[in-house]
Amino acid sequence: MEFITSFRKSQTPIERTRQAIKLLKKYPLCVPIIIDHKGKNTPKLSLNILTVNRHCSFIDFCYRVKKLLPGLKSNEAVLIMFGAPNQPKIIPLMNDTIGSIHNMYRDEDNFLYGTVQVEDAYG
Questions:
Q1: d(CA 76, CA 116)
Q2: Residue 85 in this model has a pLDDT that exceeds 80
Q3: Is residue 78 pLDDT above 90, yes or no?
Q4: Which of 13, 9, 33, 27 is nearest to 97 (CA)?
Q5: Percentage of the residues of the chain whose pLDDT score is greater than 70
Q6: What value does the mean pLDDT of the chain take?
Q7: φ/ψ of residue 15, rounded to 5
Q8: What three-state secondary structure class fits 58?
Q9: Alpha-carbon gap, residue 106 to 103, rounded angstroms
Q10: Cα–Cα distance for residue pair 84/6, rounded to 1 Å
Q11: Range of the domain at 46
């Protein structure tokens, strides 16, 4: 959550909104997402601000994020949760589109905030 915290502290809400609107105008079919790691076992992401096609399914997004995590082992599962900072986080259904998730859970600055957590998976 370091990146999200520093991003929100370094810019005013108006600046963040302008940046999101700029991204939405430049990439009209995409959604601006800010994603950060959570937990000691989760490696830091190589990218934190993403623009993802709004028609992309959540499971495809999970696969893309998994590729951004360096050193992920085969027995580790990736959990991605969405929600505005200081709000309850949700794990969407796998067939939800990123556009529908953005419409439901985006922050007032038009960014969708996500958190990635790596957990051990057995079996």
A1: 12
A2: no
A3: no
A4: 33
A5: 98
A6: 88
A7: -65, -40
A8: helix
A9: 6
A10: 15
A11: 2-120
- What is the rounded end-to-end Cα distance, in angstroms, of the chain? 29
Among all chains, which residue has been given the structure tokens 């959550």? 1
Shortest CA distance to 32 belongs to which of 49, 11, 10, 17?
49
Please choose, from the candidates 74, 81, 123, the residue with its C-alpha nearest in 3D space to the C-alpha of residue 101. Answer: 81
- Domains contained in the chain, number: 1
Computed from CA positions of residues 72, 75, 76, 79, in that sequence, does the dihedral angle turn out positive or negative?
A: positive
pTM to 2 decimal places: 0.87
Dig out the tokens for 47 from the structure: 């990218």
pLDDT at 80: 92
Chain-centroid distance, C-alpha 106 = 10
Residue type at position 23:
L
- Residue 49: name the closest of 23, 15, 76, 11 by CA: 23
Q: In this structure, what CATH number is given to the domain that contains residue 54? A: 3.10.20.90
